[in-house]
Here is the input.
Amino acid sequence: MLIAGSIIGGLLLVEHYFLNDLREQFVNWLHQLPHAGVWVVYSLSETFLGLIPPDLFIVWSAKLGNPLFYLTLLGIISYAGGMISYFIGKKLGTKRTVEFWLMNKYGKFVKQLRQWGGLLIIVAALFPLPYSAVCMIAGLVKYPLPMLAMFGISRVFRFYLYALFLFEMF
Here is the structure.
């Protein structure tokens, strides 16, 4: 219990003293960018393995005139990024070296996707799992696109759910 408490305490301290400041700096940077620049950065992130947490963009949208409109737009772009990632994965699935790299990096998701299918897609869409990576792996293993599209729509709802909490914090 002492070790677990120390680890959790250490993570909370890092979050409080370092990550909060980093988040604030990133959100301030987003506010300095023209809107088109923010959308380009976000779209690229959501298409290529979700390099930037979408929560930062949710916080950014809270300070805009119509946050619900922007949340919807963020969700649609994220959903579309997942679909693009699917086709990238499908194309990359024909190249052995890329397939080998993805299988080594995300092998556990491949196994889970084959076992749980739609449930994994919904979990990745709603929670902080790499949604675009799961979509790319779905393309790689030739998961049916209609099923991905149906389960992936839950990605849009994530933005409203997270906004309920994040808007209160900021």
Notes: The chain has a mean pLDDT of 81.
